[in-house]
Amino acid sequence: MKEYIYYDLCQIVGVAHVLRDESMSRHTTFRVGGPAQLLVTPDGESLPEVIAYCRKKEIPCLVIGNGSNLLCGDGGVDGVVVEIGKRMSGIRMEENAESATSAQPAAAADGTVTSANNPAAVTVTAEAGALLSAVAARAAAESLTGFEFAAGIPGSVGGAVVMNAGAYGGEMVDVLSEVTVLTPENEIRTIPAGELGLSYRHSVIPERGYIVLSAALHLIQGDPARIQARMEELKEKRVTKQPLEYPSAGSTFRRPEGYFAGKLIEDAGLRGFTVGGAQVSEKHCGFVINRGGATAADIRSLMEQVQHSVRNQFGVTLEPEVKFVGKF
Length: 328
What we know:
Low-confidence stretches: 100-116
Shape: globular
Radius of gyration: 21 Å
């Protein structure tokens, strides 16, 4: 890459926010991956300028969030990796107008706080780099219910919107009101959630070339004790059933219609199956983990062998939930 590109990007975002030959193992939850030629961490103001610059100069540009759903190749990433993270992680809350003018709220039988006419609703606007765990914790601190399901998902708001992330019966579509995006024309648009084609692990955002800047969530006042109890319940489920002690990308495969990926993998006799430092988790077969020293090649090879075995034994094709980026 030409040297002037580094200096131009430093002018846009500041020298402290442009890294050369940065290992992607530091920016993905699998903790593997080769170097990015340049890794840039913009704030909300400089992001559009960075994207416009890369497009103008025809520089390959990969936009990532928390790296929780990525497998980056050992050969690294050419061009510029734009990481939307801490510098774009603001969270703000605004009580809805109809709630602010409603009657004095009272607790309903299910613990939800309501007024005479409407639940007390609050719009939580989170920038794309905000971690789901941080948004859930902030919501709980404000006695807002509806986002408890996301507390343990190891991703950021932007990525969660893109893939309609969910867990334990909840999905982003359940609470998402609207999303502000950067378009391929470098325009900032706010789009209602109903226009995003949200379905199981899918939205139209990638196919339209949008970059998520922020998301507005519609939450309602709830009983603090019940909110905390629900979050503790889900935390306990994760700790006891998921291999959180090892680097992974969460659920490795999408749920096939009519099946559960983890059950198919277990029934195929692959619990604990290992390639190099990669392993099918013995605790939960839906997770591929880095037991230590795994390469991206190890993980990809293991995933391909799992797919082959499940297809041969059960005639079911497992589709990766993990996205492959970089050079393998």
